[in-house]
Design brief:
Largest sheet of chain A: 7 strands, mixed
Largest interface: A-B, 50 and 66 residues
CATH class of the largest domain in chain B: Alpha Beta
Strand content of chain B: 15-25%
Oligomer: heterodimer
CATH superfamily of chain A: Aconitase, domain 4
Distance between the termini of chain B: 63 Å
Radius of gyration of chain B: 22 Å
CATH architecture of chain A: Alpha-Beta Barrel
Distance between the termini of chain A: 35 Å
C-alpha cells in the first residue's frame, strides 16, 4: 500500500446522500477474481445510459472534473453491501481521498485497508466544498494527513478528526497482516487459553 | 459487579491484545466464506506465502452466483470462474466447503445457523454485510471487506475499535399479520438508514422474546440497513432449543454445559448502553418500501410520500429522485401500485417458516395473470423440508415457480434478474437502485405480504386479505 501524507488534487462533487455500494459498483461487476480493473465500472449505472453512452449530466463524466482525485459526497456514503470492490473501483478510477459528512462503517474500514483516506467533515464544510467545486474552475484541495488539515488557496482551511490507528496505517502504507503477525505469541497464547 | 450487556461480555472474552491508541485485536471464532468476496483474499495469501491459520474455524459455501433452475449449468463464464476458484482455493488451503451439490449448501446466513456453526457468544465474520443475521443467537457477527477476509484467514483476528452499544426496546406484542420483517422495516423507517452507525444493536423487549429463532434472524439480518455494525439478541431457552441436536453443536452432556454457558451471556439486569431507542410493537403495521433505500418505507395503509412533506432540500431531492426511479406519484396509496414480479427468498426471508407462512396466504389461490412469481428456498435443507410438507406443490399449484436454493434475485448475480422498469415485491433486504437488475423497481415486504401481492397483482393489506377483496 502506498503511504499517504500530503495530497493535492482536483475535486469532483457528488451531491447525493446515502450513496450505496450497489451504486458505486453494481453487482454484475463483482464476478472478477482480481483486485484491479474496477475503475471502468465505477458508478456504472449513473455514469452510463442503457446503450452504454456516458450521461453528460453526471459529474464524473464532466470534462472539468477529468483527473479529479478527491471525491466529495453527501452523508452515509458507502452504505449497504460490504463489497470491497467499491473502494477498489474508487481508487482504480483515480480517487485517493473522499470527503463526506459520514460513512457506513464497513466501507470506511475498507478504505483504510486500501490506502484511501475517507475524511469526515461537517455537513456545512461539505456543502462549502461542493459549492466551490461546482462553481470554481479547476477547484482543488490540499489534504495534509499528518496535520489533519484540508485547505484550498482561497483561505478555506479545516481540521478533521481521524483515529490514531488508521492514521498510522495510511501514513505508513503498512500491510496490516504483517503488523498483526508480530502479535503471533499473543494469538497463540489466546488460542491455548481457549482450546 | 457492574452489570454488563452481552455485547460487552462477548467483546471482553475475545480480546487478544489491547493497547492505548489502537483498536483491540479481537479473536474470531467462526469465519464464513463465499465465492464473491474471497478470491482476492486467497490470492493475497498465495502472493505472500501465507496459510489459513485455522481452517477448522473457517467454513465456505457457494451462494451468490448459484443458478436456481439447473444448479450445475452456469451460463456466465465469469460466474463459473468465481465458483470454480472457491473450490480450488478451499482445496489448496484445506477449508471445508459446502459446494454447489453438497447437501449442506445454501445461503451462508441460512446454513450457519442450520448447521449449528452459529452459536451464542461466538465472534463471527463473513465478507458479507448480512452477517449480522447470526446475531439472533447472541453471537457478535459482522460483515467485513475482502482485505479483512484475508486478515482473518491469515491471523484469525481482526483489529476492531470497540463499538458503541445500542438497545432497541421493542415493547408490547406484534399484531396478527404483522411479522418480524415488518418490525425491522418499521424500525429503519422510524430511525433512518444510519441511526446505527458505529453501534452494535441489542434487540430487547417482549416482542423479541416471543419470536422464534427464524423471526429473530430476520430482525438481526437487516441491522446493517440501519447502519449498525451488528445486531444481536440475548440467548434464551428458544435459542438453546433451536440449536439442540444440530450438526456442529456439542451433543449430550456437553450440550447442556454449553447451553448453561450460553444463557449466562444474556445481558445483566440494569446493564447500560450508549444509546436506547424504543418502539411500540403493537403500533407496527405491515410495511412496504416505496423508495430506493430501506428507510423509505411506509405502512401498507399509507400513501407514497411527497417531497413537499420535508423541509431539508437534500431530502427533497432524494425523495424526488426515488419517486422518479420507482415510477411512483407522490400521494398515491401504496395499495394502488401494481407489481410485475414476486420474489420470496434471500437471507432475510427464505427459511422454512417464511415459506410456510407465504404458502398459507396463497393456498388454493392463483397468482395474478400479469405477475411472475418465484420461490427460492434459502438452502438445500430448507427446500427438502418444504417439499416434505408439500409446500412446493402449494406454490406450484398457485402459479409460483419453485426453484433451487441460493441468493438469487436478492441481488441478481445469477440469471434471476428483474427487467428494467418492472416492479418486484421482494422479501429481500435492499431496494437500492438496480439491485435486482438495472432499472428494476424493488419493494421490500414480508413473505406474507409478497404472497398476497402475488395473488392480487398489487400491494394489499395481508390482514384483510381474502379472495373476495382481491376481486
Amino acid at each position: 500500500m502506498e503511504p499517504l501524507r500530503i495530497h493535492q488534487g482536483l475535486v469532483c462533487p457528488l451531491d447525493r446522500s446515502n450513496v450505496d455500494t450497489d451504486q458505486i459498483i453494481p453487482k454484475q461487476f463483482l464476478k472478477r477474481i482480481e483486485r484491479s480493473g474496477f475503475g471502468q465500472f465505477l458508478f456504472y449505472n449513473w455514469r452510463f445510459d442503457d446503450d452504454g453512452n456516458p450521461r453528460p449530466d453526471f459529474p464524473l463524466n464532466a470534462p472539468e472534473y477529468n483527473g479529479a482525485s478527491i471525491l466529495v459526497a453527501g452523508e452515509n456514503f458507502g452504505c449497504g453491501s460490504s463489497r470491497e470492490h467499491a473502494p477498489w473501483a474508487i481508487q482504480d478510477f483515480g480517487f485517493k481521498i473522499i470527503i463526506a459528512p459520514s460513512y457506513a462503517d464497513i466501507f470506511k474500514n475498507n478504505c483504510v485497508k486500501n490506502g484511501i483516506l475517507a475524511i469526515q467533515a461537517t455537513e456545512e464544510q461539505v456543502q462549502t466544498i461542493l459549492k466551490k467545486a461546482e462553481t470554481t474552475e479547476g477547484y482543488s484541495l490540499t489534504v495534509n494527513l499528518e496535520e489533519q488539515v484540508v485547505s484550498d488557496n482561497e483561505g478555506f482551511d479545516i481540521h478533521f478528526d481521524i483515529a490514531p490507528y488508521p492514521k498510522e496505517m495510511l501514513l505508513n502504507g503498512w500491510d496490516e497482516i504483517g503488523v498483526t503477525l508480530k502479535y503471533e505469541d499473543k494469538i497463540k497464547e489466546y488460542e491455548q487459553a481457549h482450546a | 459487579m457492574q452489570p454488563k450487556n452481552i455485547i460487552q461480555k462477548i467483546w471482553e472474552q475475545h480480546v487478544v491484545h489491547q493497547e492505548e491508541g489502537k483498536p483491540d485485536l479481537l479473536y474470531i471464532d467462526l469465519h464464513l466464506v463465499h465465492e464473491v468476496t474471497s478470491p482476492q483474499a486467497f490470492e493475497g495469501l498465495r502472493l505472500n506465502g501465507r496459510k489459513v491459520r485455522r481452517p477448522d474455524l473457517t467454513y465456505a459455501t457457494m451462494d451468490h452466483n448459484v443458478p436456481t433452475r439447473e444448479r450445475n449449468i452456469i451460463n456466465d463464464p465469469i460466474s463459473k470462474k468465481q465458483i470454480d476458484t472457491l473450490g480450488e482455493n478451499c482445496q489448496e488451503f484445506g477449508v471445508t466447503l459446502a459446494d454447489i451439490n453438497h447437501p449442506d449448501n445454501g445461503i451462508v446466513h441460512v446454513i450457519g445457523p442450520e448447521l449449528g456453526l452459529t452459536q451464542p457468544g461466538k465472534t463471527i465474520v463473513c465478507g458479507d454485510s448480512h452477517t449480522s443475521t447470526h446475531g439472533a443467537f447472541g453471537a457478535l457477527a459482522f460483515g467485513i471487506g475482502t482485505s479483512e477476509v484475508e486478515h482473518v484467514l491469515a491471523t484469525q483476528t481482526l483489529w476492531q475499535a470497540k463499538p458503541k452499544t445500542l438497545n432497541i426496546k421493542v415493547n408490547g406484542k406484534l399484531g396478527t399479520g404483522v411479522t418480524a420483517k415488518d418490525l425491522i422495516l418499521a424500525i429503519i423507517a422510524k430511525f433512518g438508514v444510519k441511526f446505527g452507525t458505529g453501534h452494535v444493536i441489542e434487540y430487547t423487549g417482549e416482542a423479541i422474546r416471543e419470536m422464534t429463532m427464524e423471526e429473530r434472524m430476520t430482525v438481526c439480518n437487516m441491522s446493517i440497513e440501519g447502519g449498525a455494525r451488528a445486531g444481536l439478541i440475548s440467548p434464551d431457552e428458544t435459542t438453546v432449543e433451536y440449536l439442540r441436536g444440530r450438526k456442529y453443536v456439542p451433543q449430550g452432556e456437553a450440550f447442556e454445559e454449553s447451553a448453561a454457558r450460553w444463557k449466562a451471556l444474556a445481558s445483566d439486569d440494569g446493564a447500560a448502553y450508549d444509546m436506547v431507542l424504543e418502539i411500540d410493537a403493537s403500533e407496527v403495521e405491515p410495511q412496504v418500501t416505496w423508495g430506493t433505500n430501506p428507510g423509505m418505507c411506509i405502512p401498507v395503509t399509507a400513501n407514497v410520500p411527497s417531497p413537499e412533506n420535508t423541509e431539508k432540500s437534500s431530502e427533497k431531492d432524494e425523495i424526488k429522485r426515488a419517486l422518479e426511479y420507482m415510477g411512483l406519484e407522490a400521494g398515491q396509496p401504496i395499495t394502488s401500485v401494481k407489481i410485475d414480479n414476486v420474489f420470496i427468498g434471500s437471507c432475510t426471508n427464505s427459511r422454512l417458516s417464511d415459506l410456510q407462512k407465504a404458502a398459507e396466504v396463497i393456498r388454493g389461490k392463483q397468482v395474478a395473470p400479469s405477475v411472475k412469481a418465484i420461490v427460492v428456498p434459502g438452502s438445500f435443507s430448507v427446500k427438502l423440508a418444504a417439499e416434505k410438507e408439500g409446500l412446493d406443490q402449494v406454490f406450484k399449484d398457485a402459479g409460483f415457480e419453485w426453484r433451487e436454493s441460493g441468493c438469487s434475485m436478492c441481488l441478481g448475480m445469477n440469471d434471476d434478474i428483474i427487467p428494467s422498469g418492472e416492479r418486484c415485491a421482494s422479501t429481500s433486504n435492499r431496494n437500492f437502485e438496480g439491485r435486482q437488475g438495472k432499472g428494476a423497481r424493488t419493494h421490500l415486504v414480508s413473505p406474507e405480504m409478497a404472497a398476497a401481492a402475488a395473488i392480487a397483482g398489487h400491494f394489499v393489506d395481508v390482514r384483510k386479505f381474502t379472495a373476495q377483496e382481491v376481486m
